[in-house]
Specification:
single chain, alpha+beta, 26% helix
Length: 260
């Protein structure tokens, strides 16, 4: 693989994280459309963060919308790493300095109580591994200026991860049809996003199964205790200082994120 180009792209993303200033697209560095190289960039910076003492607590799934996949020229989702310092509680103030170019989206979060290390997983494997479900707000961000991204840019940039907010009341999967779970998200009391579980690869558990297979394949399998953000249930919305986001998902209650 083009190790010198991967190193150069990883350094560019790393510097943008460190100084809080967005950079030009890394697709200008990497071979055209080389998804494997983009994940190598992500993995290089993941290794750096782990060496710096950050704690890995799960994964996020991106590009679960067919429309967004088409826009970025891909035919499958992507993934990124979730670290403990990215997690916020329901209602907790979130400094917008923590995320470059922030946008909020509604998601279903799964928390596992079993490892998922098989080469191929069934839906039954996923259901058996889920300890409980939580509503979540993911605040995505981009180190790429003006969100001028293609698939290799967002993958290299840890799937455009920012921070995330989890609800505090756990729900069992038993009797819960996540595909039909309707979602409404409001900003300062104004409705900004509507959707449901079907927007996430037809069902959030489908997204989780895809992730489990891929993570086992790349040698970072999902483990007991991991959080999985399964993907957006509807359109994302931009965030500015002073905004308050309220989210409700049918069957999962709601939560609030406040930005300062």
């Amino acid at each position: 693989m083009h190790q010198d180009l991967i190193q150069k792209a990883a350094d560019k993303i790393w510097t943008a994280y460190e100084n809080g200033q967005a950079c030009s697209p890394v697709r200008d560095i990497l071979p055209v459309g080389d998804v494997a190289a983009a994940y190598a960039v992500q993995d290089m910076n993941t290794t750096r963060w782990l060496a710096d003492g950050r704690r890995l607590v799960g994964r996020k799934i991106g590009l679960t919308s067919k429309a967004v996949q088409k826009q970025l020229g891909v035919d499958q989702p992507d993934y990124g790493m979730l670290f403990a310092d990215m997690a916020f509680c329901d209602g907790q103030d979130i400094p917008l300095t923590d995320v470059l170019q922030p946008k909020a989206e509604a998601e279903v979060a799964l928390v596992l109580d079993r490892d998922l290390k098989c080469e191929r997983h069934s839906i039954a494997d996923i259901i058996s591994a889920v300890a409980y479900v939580l509503p979540a707000i993911e605040v995505v961000g981009s180190r790429i200026a003006d969100w001028n991204i293609r698939s290799v840019d967002t993958i290299a940039d840890n799937a455009s991860s920012g921070v995330f907010v989890l609800g505090a009341t756990p729900y069992s999967l038993r009797g819960l049809d996540l595909s039909l779970a309707g979602m409404v998200m409001e900003r300062r009391g104004e409705q900004v996003s509507l959707g449901c579980g079907r927007a996430c690869l037809g069902h959030p558990l489908n997204a989780a199964r895809w992730l489990a297979d891929v993570m086992a394949e790349v040698g970072r399998p999902l483990l007991a205790g991991d959080i999985v953000l399964t993907g957006a249930l509807g359109p994302m919305t931009q965030i500015t200082p002073g905004d308050v986001i309220d989210l409700r998902i049918n069957g999962l209650g709601g939560l609030r994120a406040a930005f300062c």
